[in-house]
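#dry-run=false #mode=assembly
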Amino acid sequence: MLPLLVFLGVTFLAPLGTMLMRSVHEPVVADALPATLAALREWEGEGSPPEAVYEAAARELGAAREARTLGQVAGRVNRLRSGLRGTFTRTAGDLEEVTEGPWREAMAGMDSAWADPGTWHAIRAAGERFTARHYLNAVDLRRLPDGSVARQPEERRIYLPLLWRTLLVSLAITVFCLLLGYPIAHLIAHAPPRRGNLLLALVLVPFWTSLLVRTTSWIVLLQTQGVINDVLVAIGLVGDDGRLSMVYNMTGTLVAMTHVLLPFMVLPLYSVMRSIPPLHMRAAASMGATPAQAFRRVYWPQTLPGVGAGSLLVFILAIGYYITPALVGGSSGQLISNMVAYHMQTSLNWGLAAALGALLLAGVFVLYLLYDRLVGVERMSLG
Amino acid sequence: MTGARIGRFAHLAFCVLVFIFLVAPIIVIVPLSFNAEPYFTFTEGMLRLDAEAWSLRWYREVLENEAWTRSLANSLVIGISATLLATALGTLAALGLSNPAMPARRFITGLLISPMVTPVIISAAGMFFFYTNVGLAQTHLGLILAHATLGMPFVVITVVATLAGFDRNLTRAAASLGAGPVRIFRTVQLPLIAPGVISGALFAFATSFDEVVVVLFMGGLEQRTIPRQMWAGIREQISPAILAVATFLVVFALALLLTVEWLRRRAST
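#status=ok
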């Protein structure tokens, strides 16, 4: 018991903790420019700061350049006030030539941004070790220069709509899985044992097949020159120039994810339905209920635990899905996880990636608690 | 009665369609992997069953391509090591959990299973940050630890399920006959829970063998696995060589599935 808890602590909880830390902790600027930030504290915020600030900044920019951390510092400040990346790197280079003050004139001469109080406000803000900025960003809010919080301008609101889309898509996939999964779970559960096992195997084959394989097959099937379009053209349902675009968009994400998650719906439904004696339906029929009535009043209520377990599981898995949308979603079929990956790998805005990840994690955590309360995690079925 | 019969027929027809939806995408890539042309659809020749239109060229290409063979070796090394680790730790944990005297059982179970439901992108991002700090990023060891973490919940679940039908009087009897805890585990418990342990191990292996996100974040060129190689193939230019690899993986999945089903039957009889 203990070894696994220790193991899990190191390999799983510590990484999650590191990520949560990343989302609020940004020591880069504070570590690189400590004297500058200390000197800035003396400054009232009006006009250009005292000479001591410039002197410290000149020294520390040079040191950061030596230590090769200048790029990170500049990038960090640049997020608060764009254009400063260039100012930092250019000035740090030019300062190599300068050995003594007055620093204020020297630096302002190299780049007029150094005479602008806004630059120093940005440096001071970037120098805070702990920041809620990433979380504000992640929900499309921003801090104005006077410290108040406001919504991002309309065209820059991307994360809330994306979160909303992720929820809607996950909900749609859950509904699709339920609509497709309920009838076949019913068929499998009440078939004679041999045939039931065979049909169950048909559900389990996709479950065991590599996710990348299944995603590849959907690309093969759905792409414009793919199998389904070829068939539609061959039987004359669509013209050769009217081929449907079904992949690299939201359709691709919906179809492929429903396929991937369907077994997670069927398995819990199946295990609940198998425990319902057929006698109940026969009893209902013998008392004059139509099949529809018997289903609605007798069968359906008894399957609700399975419906709940399957739906919750599919929903939990869907909101965090990454691979399938990344491969078949194009640009319109991306979900929140893809944005986390984008900030991890492309924009390298790790703090924002961590904050988005933390929000997603919080959502999943709440759903997981709900699942544990309603179903019990130890009863999670694996086919 | 005819209404009911139509209803039953509609239900059956609908089910047939759903089963086709489930299985057809997996089956369709198998014949396409024998395409003689670099296309992803059936050529006319293939439909006419023209021997010329079918070929093994993509299989040859995979086997001769060092990138694929090296990624297979990586997948096996990482997968097998991670499986051994996950199985050992997961089985021990499951034994602990099945002990009625275990405190905070529900909480610990939830914790142990959480890597399975945590979105893998989050685990991967966190692992990237943490493993980079401790110098394990871009190493085989780092990936083995990460994959063991992701596979371990499956072992816990299957072994706990097997232990649910375990008669504790057997261990008591063994203890009363003078066997120590290790001996009891080896000679009494392990043989009885073996099917569950092996199923769990297969799940863990399948997890590692199909895992791409952690590898994407943490692995370097030296740690390319099969899924990572496929990912690159799908993202860049899809070559039918991918379909050949995919076919191999489908066969592999079938083998795993049959093994697990066989173990389950054995365990339940």
